[in-house]
Amino acid sequence: MPSEPDDEAASEAGELPTGRIARTARVGGLVAGQGLRWAGMRTANRVRTPERAEAARGERTAALVDQLVGQLGQMRGAAMKVGQMISMIELDGLPEDQRDDLQRRLAALRDDVPPVPFAKLEQLLRKELGGPLNRVFAEFEPQAFAAASIGQVHRATTLDGEEVVVKVQYPGVAEAVETDLRNATLLLPLVKRLAPGLDGKALAGELRERIGEELDYELEAQNQRRIERLLRGHPFVRIPRVDTELSTRRVLVSEYVAGERFEEVRRRDEADRDRYGEIVFRFFFGLLYRDGIALGNPHPGNYLLCADGRVCFLDYGLLRDVDRRHLDAERAIARAVRADDADGLKAALSTAGYLPAERADAVDAEWALRLMRAATGWYARPRFRRFGPADARGERDRERERRDGEQRGEAREQVNQFTLPPESLLIRRMHGIVAVVLAQLRAGADWGAIAAEYLEGAPPATPLGDQEAAFLAARAA
Fold first, then answer.
1. pLDDT at residue number 31
2. In the predicted model, is pLDDT for residue 16 greater than 50?
3. What pLDDT sits at residue 253?
4. How far is CA 373 from the centre of its chain?
5. What is the pLDDT of residues 187-232, one digit of tens each?
6. N or C: which end of the chain has fewer CB within 10 A?
């Protein structure tokens, strides 16, 4: 029987640790250790004052998050994907600063994966493409110019002279994913401690489906072709063309697009940053509320500012089609927040699946309105707002400070009545990351007025809105 690969040695060599026993043991040890510590905390809290018990619970939650991030970060691969998805759970009892730290650390770890040595990658490429690379490419750069948790990207030139990018899946990542998806169920007790109202089985099912799809580059190629056709000729959005003849389940080839990376755009003047931020907002919100497509990876590393002023968007592995009924419920939530309609909001939350019927009576409608106003008010309510570096979730932070003055146990009891419907996992992820991107850009606009175009069919609120309306009218003709 072959021995299990050593995870640490593999990681240092730039390879993905895939040992089933080692990966499962790490997750199992994390769950068991935290379970014992959590039980000890609950026992000790029985004889503590309410204030000390609350402090102890906060300390234990912080330790859980810290260990969760650290362990998933060491495992990388699909374990990282599981962690990234879990980090997007919004309606939970995890303090805001700890959730933000979890998201930041997972994002940093995702983008800090060392590339796999090209010799190992070349073997996979030869197998996928059916022969030596020189039969397919006139040139192929062995040095990767981008690497992430599931694959890395190389530049190349086809025999026809077209400049392309070649995304190649890491050898062994599929095996690691299958192990990690099984292990994800072991993490559910930890997640339930952070979000007692969460439907863990539904979340696990959604994770399995979405991450499994992300591994299939043929499916990603179909997603990218679909959106490229949908937005072909768009005045300010560009989608790279896919070379379907060269793409396979583990290799994705698409046209090379030159452009400025996000950090370069952040150094531009205010007008350029505002325009860029509005394009990012319109791209993701438009695809969702107009076309019913939720893109789950709006990370700023996936945008390029082209010389002609358009923004090129990359990465279509994490996608979900959202039906009209669920989108209508999401729209109803935003309309209720805009109208300060507490009862209407509570009804909309129930319809959308955030508030199960059997728990609805335990939630105060005005409290729910304050919570959702803090979470969605930046795009649900019309007013000019310029984001700042520390302001991605400023309204929510202020709401958290107000809640700190209340009975925190009572507030947590309210929060724990909510759950996260699987259909909304990528929606909440998209909303949250777009807000962070706008904050990093220090972008300013009336986000509520722009959002109303997609949420309510309102007339264009900006010149970019006019351009897009003309494009959509031509598309429909």
1. 62
2. no
3. 97
4. 21
5. 667 666 666 666 767 777 777 777 778 889 999 999 999 999 999 9
6. N
Condensed to tens digits (0 to 9), the pLDDT of residues 399-426 reads 444 444 444 556 667 777 888 888 888 8
Share of the chain above pLDDT 70, in %: 68
Map out the domains of the chain as residue ranges. 7-111+182-213, 216-477
The mean predicted confidence, pLDDT, of the chain is 80
Among 263-277, 381-395, 401-415, whose mean pLDDT is lowest? 401-415
Q: Residue range 233-259: average pLDDT?
A: 96
How far apart are alpha carbons 263 and 333 in whole angstroms?
34
pLDDT tens, residue by residue, 302-344: 999 999 999 999 999 889 999 999 999 999 999 999 999 999 9
| Residue carrying the six token digits 């030596």 | 132
Using an 8 Å Cβ cutoff, are 186 and 31 in contact? yes
Q: How far apart are CA 170 and CA 148, in angstroms?
A: 10
Give the HSE-up count for residue 330: Cα atoms under 13 Å, Cβ half-sphere.
27
- Give which of 432, 22, 25, 426 is closest to 214, Cα–Cα: 426
Structure confidence at residue 301 (pLDDT): 85
